[in-house]
TrEMBL record:
Gene3D superfamilies: 2,3-Dihydroxybiphenyl 1,2-Dioxygenase, domain 1 (3.10.180.10). This is VOC domain-containing protein. InterPro entries: Anthracycline_SecMetBiosynth, Glyas_Bleomycin-R_OHBP_Dase, Glyas_Fos-R_dOase_dom, VOC_core. Signal peptide: none annotated. Residues 7-124, 137-254 form the VOC domain. It comes from Aquamicrobium aerolatum DSM 21857. SUPFAM superfamilies: Glyoxalase/Bleomycin resistance protein/Dihydroxybiphenyl dioxygenase.
């Protein structure tokens, strides 16, 4: 995937029950799903309007034995996976999965930042640009949010690694600022202080046409809503939820008055 350094290029759900998770997200998001091209692989790909947007796989047994719980992960495009992994480790990050390649897919590594939030870095082999992140399209990830123990340190780390820049900031009382960050001058996410006792983690917000319908679908299919539907600045409404296996995710959609326009 010939994306620019620092682009979010893929999202992946690692879960204890892939078939149940597949049914849940198909119902809530309207995604279709197909097995990955390799017949020997159990990896599944979610698509929105025939555009691949995310992956789904069983949590590896070794990771499960070490306490890994169902989670969504983001993949960040880089020019050189090996050099980036080394640089991130030298800056205080941790390498969990050393750089490796999948023929026809690309080279990737799994790491966590110095505050403990996990992510992947990847250089894809295909020439096309990833469409997984698109702030304008339902079914695609529209926002990348990092809740972390040390927002300033995290912003500095990611800025040095991927070139992200600070955007606007919104005060959040005791939680400090909700600090937007930009990739090539465009807001793609925000960093905020994690609530006391909570680990540093990424939450990815996927776009939907109707937040209220999505909330009903989450509850009807065994998920749990922790926040929302709630209005946010900019004319959107959000939900933060967990799926039936416990993976946290977000949804974002238009406000009711915008949705109601012909």
């Amino acid at each position: 995937m010939r994306n620019r350094q620092g682009d979010f290029i893929w999202y992946e759900l690692m879960t204890s029950d892939p078939e149940a998770a597949r049914a849940f997200y198909q119902a809530v998001m309207g995604w279709s799903s197909d097995k990955f091209g390799d017949p020997a692989s159990d990896y599944q790909v979610f698509s929105a309007s025939d555009m691949p947007v995310a992956g789904l796989l069983q949590t590896p047994s070794e990771a499960a034995d070490n306490g890994a719980h169902p989670s969504w992960f983001g993949y960040i495009g880089v020019d050189d996976v090996d050099a980036t992994s080394l640089r991130m480790a030298q800056a205080g990050g941790t390498v969990h999965l050393a750089p490796r390649s999948i023929p026809g897919v690309g080279r990737f590594a799994m790491l966590s930042d110095p505050q403990g939030a996990a992510l992947y870095v990847m250089r894809g082999e295909p020439d096309e640009t990833s469409g997984s992140f698109d702030a304008q399209k339902p079914g695609h990830c529209q926002w990348n949010e990092l809740a972390t123990r040390d927002p300033e340190a995290a912003l500095s780390f990611y800025g040095e690694q991927f070139g992200w820049q600070k955007g606007q900031a919104m005060p959040m009382d005791d939680l400090g600022d909700y600090q937007m960050f930009q990739q090539n001058g465009v807001d793609i996410g925000a960093v905020m202080k994690a609530q006391s006792g909570m680990p540093s983690t990424w939450v990815f917000y996927f776009g939907v046409d109707d937040i209220d319908n999505a909330a009903t679908s989450i509850a009807a299919h065994g998920g749990q809503i922790h926040h929302g539907p709630a209005d946010v600045p900019g004319g959107s409404r959000i939900i933060v939820a967990t799926d039936p296996q416990g993976a946290m995710f977000g949804l974002v959609g238009p406000a009711q008055d915008v949705k109601a326009q012909p």
